[in-house]
Design goal:
single chain; 459 residues; mainly alpha; Fumarase C, Chain B, domain 1; Ribonucleotide Reductase Protein R1, domain 1; two-stranded parallel ribbon; 20 helices; binds arginine; cytoplasm; Argininosuccinate_lyase; lyase; Argininosuccinate lyase; argininosuccinate lyase activity
Length: 459
């Protein structure tokens, strides 16, 4: 037999493989609760404008209640012949309540229906992601506040550069995440318009109330153009771009956690519950969680490219191509949420090893720039000071010494303005404390930056 849903125009049934090939119910069922929510709003609106009777609306809602329960308890009979989540639910509704079920689709198309469902889904997803992101930020900021005097080497090129405090490093992570929060919030705001009423592409001949459905579903307004409403998935792309950046940030943190937990660095301990062992090497404790997060960044980046490529060159209005938006989008959401959850649990639980960090900061001439700045304060031009200190460092490299271990007489050999007060500026504590301005690594600055960061979380 031809399809119950559009069989009228067809002379032969859909090819069995084509039916499976074009169906999406195996994955778009993730939209079921949003689809039901949208249908309730649409039915209420059709009732308010007199297209449906109160009785019909009531039985639609009753039928949708049953369907929601069937889906939740995995009792729902998903059928490939019904293609997607929308037609599975609608056909089941008609089975349950009869003719009123057939009227639900009045003034509506799957095109505006799916555009609505994805927006509702993504709005919920963003809210959950923002919650986990905030939980992670809160943990990072607390750890930063506890480590405003914990000195570690700061790196450029992964070579020791200048001393910083661990709290300052952590607050750098927080800044990245704070921008991610902003990007996701922007995306949420832009996608929060209701496509219902656009119908297939041109609108509908029924006297619909788009303001009503928009308000019922918590959208800020109806979309302004029916053709655009059913076709563009830019909001999904925008979300994936924000998610890819967020994951990129998590991958950078992951890389640092992996390096820091190695025996060579030994800056932190990651609790056993976030690590796994080796089946052959009894001594191993591997930082699997950050490694996996680093790896999962690749999936999200891939999904972003998939969605961009899917949308590229599509003519107005809806095209079936867009059915392919769902799996990448759902996986972006799931992956990002899982990674945030893992990080929000793990990061606050790491133990910084202050002694190791300090030891690492003592090698590599981390205070060489402080010595150059000292010479500038004594009257040298910065380029000349740079040259003098470069020679002192070269001497230390040959003599296997550190700058602060050189006798004053030796230091004075590099420049006569050097005096006893040089030893204070060569200390790690002196170095960090001297960078005492907005955004600098001085412990006092880091403490107030942590307080300010925590306040910004009360959004
Ligand atoms: N399953 C479809 C999708 O996800 C729903 C819209 C189908 N519309 C259509 N005209 N075939 O895009």
């Amino acid at each position: 037999s031809t399809s119950d849903l559009w069989g009228g125009r067809f002379n032969e049934p859909t090819d069995a493989f084509v039916q499976r090939f074009t169906a999406s119910h195996t994955f778009d069922r993730a939209l079921a609760s949003h689809d039901i929510r949208g249908s309730r709003a649409h039915a209420a609106m059709l009732t308010a404008v007199g297209v449906l009777s109160e009785d019909e609306c009531e039985s639609i809602n009753r039928g949708l209640d049953i369907i929601a329960k069937e889906i939740e308890s995995s009792q729902f009979d998903w059928q490939v012949a019904r293609e997607d989540v929308h037609m599975n639910i609608e056909a089941r509704l008609t089975e349950l309540i009869g003719d009123a079920g057939k009227k639900l689709h009045t003034g509506r198309s799957r095109n505006d229906q799916v555009a609505t469902d994805i927006r509702l889904y993504l709005r919920d997803a963003i809210d959950r992601i923002l919650g986990e992101l905030t939980r992670l930020q809160s943990g990072i900021i607390d750890l930063a506040a506890e480590n405003s005097d914990t000195i570690m080497p700061g790196f450029t090129h992964l070579q020791v550069a200048q001393p910083v405090v661990f709290g300052h490093h952590l607050l750098a992570w927080n800044e990245m995440l704070e921008r991610d929060f902003g990007r996701l919030s922007d995306c949420r705001q832009r996608l929060n318009e209701c496509p219902l009423g656009a119908a297939a592409l041109a609108g509908t001949t029924f006297p619909i109330d788009r303001e009503m459905t928009a308000a019922t579903l918590g959208f800020s307004a109806p979309t302004r153009n029916s053709l655009d409403s059913v076709s563009d998935r830019d909001f999904a792309i925008e979300f994936s771009a924000a998610a890819a950046l967020l994951m990129t940030h998590l991958s950078r943190m992951s890389e640092e956690l992996v390096i820091w937990s190695s025996a060579q660095f030994d800056f932190i301990d990651i609790p056993d519950r976030f690590c796994t062992g080796s089946s052959i090497m009894p001594q191993k404790k591997n930082p699997d969680v950050p490694e996996l997060v680093r790896g999962k960044t690749g999936r999200v980046n891939g999904h972003l490219v998939a969605l961009l490529t899917l949308m590229k060159s599509q003519p107005l209005a809806y095209n079936k191509d867009n059915q392919e938006d769902k799996e990448p989008l759902f996986d972006c959401v799931g992956t990002t949420l899982d990674c945030l959850r893992a990080f929000a649990d793990m990061v606050p639980a790491i133990t910084p090893k202050a002694e190791s960090m300090r030891r690492a900061a003592l090698v590599g001439f981390a205070t060489a720039t402080d010595l150059a700045d000292y010479l500038v304060r004594k009257g040298l031009a910065f380029r000349d000071a740079h040259e003098v200190v470069g020679k002192a460092v070269a001497h230390c490299v040959n003599a296997n010494s550190t700058l602060e271990a050189l006798p004053l007489e030796t230091l004075r050999g590099f420049h006569s303005v050097i005096a006893e007060d040089v030893f204070e500026i060569l200390t790690l504590e002196g170095s960090v404390a001297a960078r005492d301005h907005l955004g600098g690594t001085a412990p006092a600055q880091v403490r107030s930056a942590a307080v300010a960061a925590k306040q910004r979380l009360q959004r």
